[in-house]
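User: Reviewer 2 asked us to show a designed sequence for the structure in our supplementary figure. I'm pasting the structure tokens here. Could you produce the per-position amino acids so we can include them in the response letter?
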């Protein structure tokens, strides 16, 4: 049998990576205490709860997981008694699940007004987007889209407010749709065996 530990280790999981990942999650929580200039064009005086550096910080531990996107020992998949699909899907979704679990554990430390459901959607979106790009183009490229998207959404006027699904709570249905598309694309990529 092809143990899950061996599958994750073949993707580059080490103790140092786990410590770095956990540290970046802690830093992202600390960054929630630092406000950014208001993103909502209707507000000029002060930022709202979602408008803080924690949203950008959230992308850092997720971007780090791009190094785990594909196996460094593809011959293990060939010799595995598990199906090729299971061998590719399980580690990918374990990574997404670990990112969600970290967000859940740290959610009591989030500022008042930041909902865990919205944070979870962002974690799933950023995780699936990171792994999708990393599996297709490589880990360096995979680490880029989530932080880039968060930076663009953080600049007032860079995205129309109605389409700013990261900060505009009225665009939650758009966030759900984009998250679902990203997750389905990652699933399809893994089912086709391109990871």
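Assistant: Here is a per-position design you can include in the supplement:
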């Amino acid at each position: 049998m092809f143990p899950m530990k061996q599958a994750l280790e073949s993707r580059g999981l080490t103790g140092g990576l786990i410590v770095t990942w956990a540290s970046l999650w802690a830093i992202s929580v600390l960054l929630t205490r630092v406000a950014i200039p208001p993103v909502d064009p209707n507000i000029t005086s002060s930022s709202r709860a979602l408008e803080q550096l924690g949203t950008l910080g959230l992308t850092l531990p997720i971007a780090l997981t791009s190094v785990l996107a594909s196996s460094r020992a593809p011959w293990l998949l060939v010799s595995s008694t598990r199906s090729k699909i299971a061998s590719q899907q399980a580690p990918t979704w374990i990574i997404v699940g670990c990112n969600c679990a970290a967000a859940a554990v740290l959610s009591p430390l989030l500022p008042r007004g930041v909902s865990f459901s919205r944070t979870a959607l962002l974690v799933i979106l950023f995780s699936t987007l990171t792994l999708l790009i990393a599996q297709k183009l490589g880990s360096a490229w995979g680490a880029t889209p989530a932080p880039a998207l968060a930076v663009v959404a953080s600049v007032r006027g860079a995205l129309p407010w109605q389409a700013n699904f990261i900060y505009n709570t009225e665009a939650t249905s758009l966030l759900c749709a984009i998250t679902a598309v990203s997750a389905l694309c990652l699933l399809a990529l893994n089912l086709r065996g391109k990871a």
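For the response letter, you might also mention the following. Residues 4-191 form one domain. The chain has one domain: 4-191.
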